[in-house]
Amino acid sequence: MSALFSRRPEPEPATGTAANGRPRESVWDYPRPPRVEAVGRRVRVALGGETILDVPDAIRVLETAGAPTIYIPLAAVREGTLRPAAGGSFCEWKGAATYWDVVAGGETAPRAAWSYPKPSEAFAELRGLVSFYPALVECRLDDELVEPQPGGFYGGWVTAEITGPIKGGAGSGGW
């Protein structure tokens, strides 16, 4: 098998409590097709030291082998901090995504956010919401700084309770 593709790895145990006090969750217990549910945590995003959103809750999408992706209402994002970006992508579950540059604190993070203006019927609740790449902007759940999902394509939010291995890195193309 090539270095790009490998067999499904052995999941790490999802027992006990993480350093953030939350019960462990294995990305291998997440469903396919994905599930949408409430986050139940405060969500903050910043760039250049400026907060562009701070909301008491949001929703997350859980998909097998991927870190949760957090979606926030576009209306909650500080005005003037999102600028339409070129290009797009397509998710087999959610549909066509559009991208946003994030501008704040004297910085610009190109294509640091995305949304689904016309999501598939099964994911209609994503309409009017936006998500951010934690590799490109500062993302926090409660007071915990989020780590980005491995690789550069997926926008999952990795926190202390998430166990993997998580797709996105080298060798995970076949998962």
Structure, briefly:
The protein is mainly β.
What would you say this structure looks like, in words?
A hairpin with an 8-residue loop joins strand 13 and strand 14. The strands form four sheets. Strands 2-5-6-10-9-8-7 form a seven-stranded antiparallel sheet, with no helix packed on it. Strands 4-3-11-12 form a four-stranded antiparallel sheet, with no helix packed on it. Strands 1-15 form a two-stranded parallel sheet. The protein is about 0% helix and about 40% strand. It has a single domain, classed as Domain of unknown function (DUF427) (Metal Binding Protein, Guanine Nucleotide Exchange Factor, Chain A, Beta Complex), CATH 2.170.150.40. It has about 180 residues and is mainly beta. It is built from no helices and 15 strands. The chain starts with about 25 loop residues before the first strand and ends in a 12-residue tail after the last strand.
